[in-house]
Amino acid sequence: MKTRAAIVHEQNGPFLLDELDMDELRDDEVLVRIAGTGICHTDLICRDQVYPVPLPCIFGHEGAGIVEKTGSSVTKVAAGDHVVLSFQSCGSCAGCLRGEPAHCLNIFQSNFSGSRADGTTICHKEGRPIHGSFFNQSSFAELAVASERNTVKVTTDVAIEILGPLGCGIQTGAGAVINSLKPAAGSSIAIFGCGSVGLAAVMAARVVGCSTIIAIDLLPQRLEMAMELGATHTIDPQQGDVIDHIHSISEHGVDYSLECSGLPSVLRQAVDALNNTGVCGVVGAAPPETECTLDMNSIMFGRTVTGIIEGDSVPDIFIPQLIELYRQGRFPFDRLITFYDLADIDRAVQDMEQGKVLKPVVRP
What are the CA-CA distances from residue 311 to residues 59, 256, 319 (Å)? Predict the structure, then answer.
């Protein structure tokens, strides 16, 4: 088989399109013709080697498309099915067996190794291996190979090209609220960082009935979008002390906060924004060994800080739930999307990094 894919050859390098040879499918694998793949912050920090994924590599981990072919042991999907590709988990560790695949003990190896579990690569160029299997999909390509485990069958009556971001960024933000924090109706939440993850959290907070939804970001256009999607208040950190502003809205602090930026100073604000029994969820990806200073007394008086991966979701359950909310008009995540051709992926990345777009989706 052959495919066209966007390849990063060097740290901080461009995405270069090339035609590659692909191995034949193994028994447990699924071949998907990609209709659209969201670009996520994680793709870019791996391109830049913040997380040391081997290069050259095909990134892309928010893919959606139509199944072309399946291995002989695959039963969950068949040729012609519409699917979203999500993260990979091993299925056999304690986390997976508890029904918590996002806390798989082998999650880093399963998603960031640049190869299949046995160390082989799926794609090659003139006999040279090209690393891939990024999140077990590498979907910045015309064709992607996933496994039955990280392939989610979805309805055919919603445009498949918009669904890829549900595989990571959108399910991360929405799941952080719905699955992890589980705020009660009428509660208050502050969301720090209103990129696509934060805005997915804003929409989810509205879905579950939070009565006070505070969106914090530096970019006015993001704050405007947050208000349109359900925020009740917005804060620009450049316009004064964030914590004072939050206390002017919710006197004793908020019940929940969500940190989406990956910045230690913002995490400190997200914790300080809580009331005495509040919970702060952390989804922002920071470089390894990044440290943050917290007031120990603040934690001792009942506050909680919890890390959240992939919205603590079970993708086969949660992604169809988000699609149904979208169909009902209650979760309009498509408003975050801007489409680009795969050939224009570098322009899409640049626009995303400059804050011009929220969720670029590239189409082969």
Answer: 21, 15, 11
Query: Domain extents for the chain?
Result: 2-167+332-363, 172-308
Closest C-alpha to 346, from 23, 72, 47: 47
Q: What percent of the chain has pLDDT over 90?
A: 99
Digit-coded pLDDT (tens) for 302-346: 999 999 999 999 999 999 999 999 999 999 999 999 999 999 999
Provide the whole-model pTM.
Answer: 0.96
The CATH architecture that domain 172-308 belongs to is 3-Layer(aba) Sandwich (3.40)
| Cβ 139 vs Cβ 60: under 8 Å | yes
* Strand duo 143-147 + 233-235: pairing: unpaired
* Dihedral angle sign, alpha carbons of residues 158, 160, 162, 167: positive
Q: What is the model's pLDDT at position 349?
A: 98
* Residue range 172-185, pLDDT digits in tens: 999 999 999 999 99
Q: Which residue has the tokens 């570098």?
A: 346
Which is the CATH superfamily of the domain at 2-167+332-363? Medium-chain alcohol dehydrogenases, catalytic domain (3.90.180.10)
Cβ neighbours of residue 192 closer than 8 Å, sequence gap 6 or more: 198, 216, 257, 258, 259, 260, 261, 266, 269, 270
Residue 134, helix vs strand vs coil: helix
Give residue 160's pLDDT band: very low, low, confident or very high (50, 70, 90).
very high
Helix, strand, or coil (residue 37): strand
Mean pLDDT confidence for 3-22: 98
Q: Tell me the two tokens of residue 188.
A: 């208050």
- C-alpha distances (whole Å) from 239 to each of 202, 227, 245, 247, 360 are 21, 18, 10, 15, 29
Cα–Cα distance for residue pair 77/163, rounded to 1 Å: 17
Q: How confident is the model at residue 217 (pLDDT cuts 50, 70, 90)?
A: very high
d(CA 189, CA 181): 10
